[in-house]
Predict the structure.
Amino acid sequence: MRIIYRLAFIFLMPAALSGCSAAADAFFKAGDSLFQPGATETASMRTYSVSEFIKPYSENPVKANKALLGKWVKVKGVVTDISKVSGVAESYSFIVSLKDESKNNVIMFQFGSHNTADVEQLRIGSSATIVGQVHNSNNAMLPVLQNPSVVK
């Protein structure tokens, strides 16, 4: 009898969790629309180059984190990498790296799986402008920008 329960668990659990990812995507999309800056606010934001955004962190990361933590920023650069990162229960996210056209400074954006359409429109080697929220850099020199969206 125990074997039947174990087999049922093995086969039914992935099916149950697969519905969770669809619900999670819907939840995060709704959250994005509530908290991300709107089109008008995004259009009026200053656009930083990757070097301009990184400069305060290279001068004093503690001061830069204090000034920028939680803020929304718009950064323009060249896409150098797009990676899919596995999560828990079949969830995943994407890490998109931007660099300056003339320098090798790189900043990373973490897109949730619900933003697959934004990530699919990017191309390595092409220019992109992305809005993201500055999150705690922990022990890293630079923060990862989260909750991003590609500016069209």
Q: What stands out?
A: The first strand starts at residue 47 and ends at 49. The helical segments are 2-35, 39-44, 50-59, 61-68, 116-120. The beta strands are 47-49, 72-86, 92-99, 106-112, 127-134, 145-150. The two ends are 57 Å apart (CA to CA).
